[in-house]
Amino acid sequence: MRESRTPGRLSAGRISWFVLPTAVLVFAGASSPWMAQRVPRFTFPTVAAAGAALIVLSFVNSLVQLVRRRRVEGHLRFFPVVVNVVALVFLVLLPLTHLVRAVTPSGDGAPRIHAGFGDWLGSEGYPRMSPHRGVDVAGRMGADVLAAADGRVTVARDNRDLCGWIVVIDHDPYGLRTVYCHFSEVAVRVGDNVKRGQRIGAVGTSGQRAWPGFEHVHLELQSGRNINAIEDPLPRIVGCFDDTKVYPADRLVLTYPVKCSGSASEGGDDVVLTAGLANSTFTS
Length: 284
Fold this sequence. Notes:
Radius of gyration: 23 Å
Largest sheet: 8 strands, antiparallel
Helix content: 25-40%
CATH architecture of the largest domain: Distorted Sandwich
Number of domains: 2
């Protein structure tokens, strides 16, 4: 009777030896810009897809073993099934739903939000170590990034962290500032006054590198100079930028930092600062 169970245990063990390192590798790639920027873009999506297939196989195997033990031993062992269900939910189903949502166009033409404020899941649908500080607004690679409101540029540099290339715009007199991350190029300098809808750079994958299909602008809203005094920018977003509209001046309202489907906005022809330039080019 022991020999009849051995092949099943060995099969599950082999699968686990592949699943665990795969999960660790995907998590490391999602949380380490140093690692993510040094491998081809399709490396971690491919590893994640292979890991998802193994998890599904492991889940099916655990169900087969559950039924087999019930017939042979007369009792059930739910722990392997529970472990596989958890892995299936967090490493297969949630990323799959994010993928479906990413490739499905929105009905109103507004850009997709890959990850919201306070979310514990990243843009690709995998668990995060901390709540999301802003919103990830979907945008095509190389598309224009637009200022969400009038203001003055106070930071424009390569941050060399999860944010990557960053632009910060102070919005006086409201005591608030918007933070934009993951540029492929920056089109403004510190001290520039920018208008709502003005081009300030291009969508990229610097910093925490987005997977293909999940390119986005990370948008934060901070109060004053305290980087931890953050709020959800989404309630302040009143829609896509429209140069024919008059926006309120008594409070800070934001527009999406990318162009919406079928919309057009005017961008500036400011100097372009690309990732090839030295960090000393910028001041803050």
